[in-house]
């Protein structure tokens, strides 16, 4: 536990860093959009160099890093969020919800060594942008300007979703960040990507048949498949009755049971363009949680070009 003196010191340090960043912005003393595009390209290159890791891409774990470093925000106390990248520090790095994210942090450390001028918060969220865009998802407008915090600024455990819970838990967790039902359902669509691991969350398996391509299949499968509780030694999760190769978590299945959630999930199942539009908007908000507006290097967000788009040009 930190003393009041330590807390005051941490706040003073961060205030100084925030002020320094604001001064850089005011003086235009910041890297250019092209510099950040180079970082994006390096992340994309690393993402695809995954070999046998999971489904052949680091994309899903990089998106999870960006998500979990941003989703600690508390709108009431104005603490947490992507600004200070406090998952670098214990005990936050050891929180159960962050199990396995050392893989992503270590990958991004290599990028940080190549581009030492970028803050961890900017690096991690830019990695999330690259992951979504390079895995066939929508464009995610992004702004630079986050600063690196100190260990005393690490957030308490319990701010990220617990997959074993239900609708009231989701509303409490996401409501604390400032999100409504529609935005909760849109953010849940990130589960189209990646898979669960027994040595991390305890759960096991992918949500969709294409875990490294972002589609609206997550919502389609929720309604089109027959889901049954899996009989195994692990935590409570569902599996599809037909192939028994897919899984859903209790927090996923609640999207088909809760009247308000179901309305939005049905809409996304029927219209991928709508899902992409809403997903992009809510991810932009998620990645900017906790960052004072005076720190942004540009008033308008930037659009980073996909690697394929650059090569075609």
UniProtKB/TrEMBL annotation:
Residue span(s) of domain Plant heme peroxidase family profile: 55-312
Gene Ontology molecular-function annotations: cytochrome-c peroxidase activity; heme binding; metal ion binding
Localization (cell): Mitochondrion intermembrane space; Mitochondrion matrix
InterPro entries documented for this protein: Ccp1-like, Haem_peroxidase, Haem_peroxidase_sf, Peroxidase_I, Peroxidases_AS, Peroxidases_heam-ligand_BS
Major localisation: mitochondrion
Keyword tags: Heme, Iron, Metal-binding, Mitochondrion, Oxidoreductase, Peroxidase, Transit peptide
UniProt similarity note: Belongs to the peroxidase family. Cytochrome c peroxidase subfamily.
Entry's Gene Ontology BP terms: cellular response to oxidative stress; hydrogen peroxide catabolic process; response to reactive oxygen species
Protein's job: Destroys radicals which are normally produced within the cells and which are toxic to biological systems.
SUPFAM superfamilies: Heme-dependent peroxidases (SSF48113)
Enzyme Commission code: 1.11.1.-
GO cellular component: mitochondrial intermembrane space; mitochondrial matrix
Alphabetical list of CDD domains matching this protein: ascorbate_peroxidase (cd00691)
Name of protein: Peroxidase
Organism: Pterulicium gracile
Matches recorded under PROSITE patterns: PEROXIDASE_1 (PS00435), PEROXIDASE_2 (PS00436), PEROXIDASE_4 (PS50873)
PANTHER family assigned to the protein according to its UniProt record, in alphabetical order: CYTOCHROME C PEROXIDASE, MITOCHONDRIAL, THYLAKOID LUMENAL 29 KDA PROTEIN, CHLOROPLASTIC-RELATED
């Amino acid at each position: 536990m930190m003393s009041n003196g330590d807390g005051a010191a941490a706040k003073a340090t961060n205030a100084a860093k925030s002020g320094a960043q604001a001064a850089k912005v005011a003086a235009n003393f910041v890297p250019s959009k092209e510099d950040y595009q180079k970082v994006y390209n390096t992340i994309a290159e690393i993402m695809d160099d995954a070999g046998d890791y999971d489904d052949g891409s680091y994309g899903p774990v990089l998106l999870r890093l960006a998500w979990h470093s941003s989703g600690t925000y508390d709108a009431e106390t104005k603490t947490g969020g992507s600004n200070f990248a406090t998952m670098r520090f214990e005990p936050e790095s050891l929180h159960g919800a962050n199990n396995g994210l050392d893989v992503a942090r270590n990958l991004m450390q290599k990028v940080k060594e190549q581009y030492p001028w970028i803050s961890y918060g900017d690096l991690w969220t830019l990695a999330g942008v690259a992951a979504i865009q390079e895995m066939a998802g929508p464009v995610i407008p992004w702004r630079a300007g986050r600063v690196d915090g100190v260990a005393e600024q690490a957030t308490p455990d319990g701010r990220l979703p617990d997959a074993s819970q239900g609708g009231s838990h989701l509303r409490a967790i996401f409501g604390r960040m400032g999100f409504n039902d529609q935005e909760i359902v849109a953010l849940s669509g990130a589960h189209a990507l990646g898979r669960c691991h027994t040595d991390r969350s305890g759960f096991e398996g992918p949500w969709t048949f294409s875990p490294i391509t972002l589609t609206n299949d997550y919502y389609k499968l929720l309604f089109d498949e027959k889901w049954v509780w899996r009989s195994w030694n692990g935590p409570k999760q569902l599996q599809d009755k037909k192939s028994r190769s897919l899984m859903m978590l209790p927090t996923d299945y609640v999207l088909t049971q809760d009247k308000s959630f179901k309305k939005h999930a049905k809409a996304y199942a029927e219209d991928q363009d709508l899902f992409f539009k809403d997903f992009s908007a809510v991810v932009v908000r998620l990645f900017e949680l906790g960052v004072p507006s005076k720190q942004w290097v540009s008033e308008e967000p930037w659009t980073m070009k996909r690697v394929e788009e650059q090569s075609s040009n």
